[in-house]
Design brief:
Elements: H1 5-11, E1 24-28, E2 35-40, H2 44-63, H3 66-82, H4 84-95, H5 99-119, E3 126-128, E4 136-143, E5 146-150, H6 158-170, E6 174-177, H7 183-196, E7 203-205, H8 212-220, E8 224-230, H9 233-243, E9 249-253, E10 259-262, H10 268-280, E11 292-296, H11 300-312, H12 332-347, E12 351-354, E13 370-373, H13 380-383, E14 390-396, H14 399-406, E15 411-412, E16 414-418, H15 422-431, E17 436-439, E18 454-455, E19 458-459, H16 464-469, E20 472-479
Parallel strand pairs: 5-6, 5-8, 6-7, 8-9, 10-11, 10-16, 11-14, 13-14, 16-17
Antiparallel strand pairs: 1-2, 3-4, 4-20, 9-19, 12-13, 15-18
Organism: Asticcacaulis excentricus (strain ATCC 15261 / DSM 4724 / KCTC 12464 / NCIMB 9791 / VKM B-1370 / CB 48)
GO biological process, one term: gamma-aminobutyric acid catabolic process
Protein name: Aldehyde Dehydrogenase
Length: 483
């Protein structure tokens, strides 16, 4: 399936459907392997020019009132929702996501713009009682400056609006590099932003087949005052080090290894579908998806049986087909990694209850819902993000053991726990080392709450009031001579 007229109308001249004369790379449909379009392959020179343009455009935008900026952001939100069907299909074609989920991502992405349009009006300063007469002490909030950002492919719309929404609401300009697997979604967002009234030059999308060169400029150029990255911990550490040369304000949303701890008093009518939703959403390609599922031994067999039944209902197929529950993985590298993790776990004693290998009849990237039981601690998938539709289950005996297993990782992004005991729920949610805990809840991401991790899962928060603060600087003013 190719890009529809509605999608092409949004993208305009930002893409080419045939190999262009300029340096370019292709965006592929992972469901079929076909080329969807070609986009510019940019590097350091184009990134530096984008920073120059953004720096020039920012003063006029920052001088607008928060209400004036909000009106434009609200129009951007409305355009996203008016084009929800086209944008959802674009996500499905470019990223492989099931179309029902893709439509949901459009609404999720638009939600960040709507939230920060309003929250930008509440970037409050404060007055401070002076310790001596004749002075007035106060603080004001000001935009941090030009923002550099790098976003991943698994949420190609919302990971961008989660950064650009607060950046623009705060009065900043931005230069953003989207993932090379999903450049079209980023370009569509920019096109609609400009139609909504966001000034040309305020947002720059730097598309590139390889991110290292662009990332180096964004992290080392002193004109970039804030850098925001969502991606792997390994890459995040490199970018973090590069930012040190100019002491930028930085936020990093990095890898996860989310535990699910299911106690024997859990309500399985809640715990099983919630775990399935967390695990198999976006074919398991989310940073907060269930990665290690610990089930107390008393209900282990019953939980496995019911989770398997849930997984069997997920139809594997092209993302754009209405009945699809699981689309393809993003690329061959991803499919190879998931296959190797499963094979390695099985070689060490894990048992395959469902799935377990690529469905070659559908294509090389189609990995079905997979259930593995009795996965040993020594398996790589205990320590690494699977990033695929593989549910790895581990039995445990005591509450203390469940918490210890959950915390046995250098990562701490999301975690989940299921219990009907209120006291236990409170104890466990406090004891688990994660930036976010879903208690009897499998999907907790929302624009109104802070998103982020601890340990090697990152720095800073996105969403909510904390997300706006990431793009503001607090200035203290001591106003003397008033006595």
């Amino acid at each position: 399936m190719k890009l529809t007229p509605a999608i092409l109308d949004i993208l305009g001249d930002a893409i080419s459907q045939t190999p262009p004369a300029y340096k370019a790379f292709a965006s592929f449909n992972p469901s079929t392997g076909e080329v969807l379009a070609y986009v510019r392959d940019m590097g350091a020179e184009e990134t530096e020019a984008a920073i120059t343009s953004a720096q020039a455009a920012m003063p006029e935008w920052a001088a607008k009132t928060a209400k004036e900026r909000a009106k434009i952001l609200e129009k951007w939100h409305d355009l996203l929702m008016q084009n929800q069907e086209a944008l959802g299909l674009l996500v499905s074609l470019e990223q492989g996501r099931a179309i029902k989920e893709a439509r949901g991502e459009v609404a999720y992405a638009a939600g960040f713009i709507e939230w920060f349009a309003e929250e930008g009006k509440r970037a409050y300063g404060r007055t401070i009682p002076a310790p001596v007469a004749g002075k007035q002490l106060l603080t004001v909030q000001q935009p941090v400056g030009v923002v550099g950002a790098v976003t991943p492919w698994n949420f190609p719309l919302s990971m961008i609006t989660r950064k650009l929404g607060p950046a623009l609401a705060a009065g900043c300009a931005a230069v953003l590099k989207p993932a090379e697997d999903t450049p079209l979604s980023a370009l569509a967002l920019k096109q609609l932003a400009n139609r909504a009234g966001v000034p040309e030059g305020l947002i720059h999308i730097v598309t590139a087949a390889s991110g290292a060169e662009v990332g180096k400029v964004l992290t080392t150029d002193p004109r970039i005052k804030k850098f925001s990255f969502t991606g792997s911990t390994a890459v995040g550490k490199t970018l973090y080090a590069q930012c040190a040369s100019t002491i930028k304000k930085i936020s990093l949303e990095l890898g996860g290894n989310a535990p699910v701890v299911v106690f024997d008093d859990a309500d399985l009518d809640i715990a099983v579908p919630a775990t399935a939703l967390s695990k198999f959403r976006n074919s398991g390609q989310t940073c907060v998806c269930a990665n290690r599922i610990f089930v107390q031994r008393g209900i282990y067999d019953a939980f496995v049986e019911r989770l398997t039944a849930e997984a069997q209902r997920l139809l594997l197929g092209p993302g754009w087909e209405e009945g699809t529950g699981l689309g393809p993985l993003i690329n061959q590298k991803a499919a190879t990694k998931v296959t190797q993790l499963v094979e390695e776990a099985v070689s060490k004693g894990a048992r395959v209850v469902l799935g377990g290998k690529v469905d070659e009849a559908q294509g090389p990237l189609y990995f079905p819902a997979t259930i593995l039981t009795h996965v040993p601690r020594e398996a790589r998938m205990f320590d690494e993000e699977i990033f695929g539709p593989v549910a790895a289950l581990y039995p445990f005996d005591t509450e203390a053991e469940g918490i210890a297993l959950a915390n046995d990782t250098p990562f701490g992004l999301a975690a989940y726990a299921f219990t009907t005991d209120i006291k236990r729920g409170w104890r466990v949610s406090q004891a688990i080392e994660a930036g976010m805990v879903g208690l009897n809840d499998g999907v907790m991401s929302t624009e109104v709450a802070p998103f982020g991790g601890v340990k090697e899962s990152g720095l800073g928060r996105e969403g909510a009031v904390e997300g706006l603060e990431e793009f503001l600087e607090t200035k203290f003013i001591s106003f003397g001579g008033l006595g």
